[in-house]
Amino acid sequence: MMIELKNIDLWRRSVDAISYFISEGNFRFNDKGISFKAMDPSQIVLVEYEMPKSAFDKFNIESNYAGVDLVELSKIMSRSLPEDKMLMDLNDSEMHIKFDGTLERSFKLPLLDISEDEIKTPKHTAEATVEIESRIMKEALKDASLFGSSVVLKVKGKQFFVEARGSGGVLNTVSKNSGVKVTSSKEIVSKYSLNFLQNIVKEAEAGEKITMELKTDAPMKVSYKIGKSDIKFYLAHMIL
Fold it and tell me: How far is CA 44 from CA 24, 38, 104, in A?
């Protein structure tokens, strides 16, 4: 098995996006690429991730899976340099990662035996979809963090609202048409953890679109791309 990737940043951001919620889990390798699915320990967020074979410069691998410590993997990936290319290999006990650039550096990460219960993707019937530029969403959530630890998302007609309140004050944000597209069949009001939502969108690039699929008082599906990779989050709602 050997994987080669010149644009290491795509893999680093993917690992980071997952590791904000999941400390250890199984990456699955097959002839389609790499995939990952796991629930965070608090069972608030389900993460689904797929990086297709076509995203890699070389992808020669037998079907396999690797249980890894994602926090440690994230630390390793943070040491990559812009000019590096990444070579990855697996054996029965270790994941080997090599950064080849001005320096040649090799890391060995022991594989973990992680039992994995079958996690079913929740049936998600959205009543509203919001496509929003990530930079706009991130700014709205930064505003919300001034006052609260939770955020209320609303959809009414073609407008999207972000609200937060606390002892320090109240935030009301209303979307304009630029950078936001709203499709809805009814008015939506739902409440979520602000910290979880900020971490969900953290690795979305400024110009990238985030898609949020919403329903009143129901979990939300958030998805975006990291290069050719698809990452999806199912975030549990809070009681209003």
Answer: 16, 11, 40
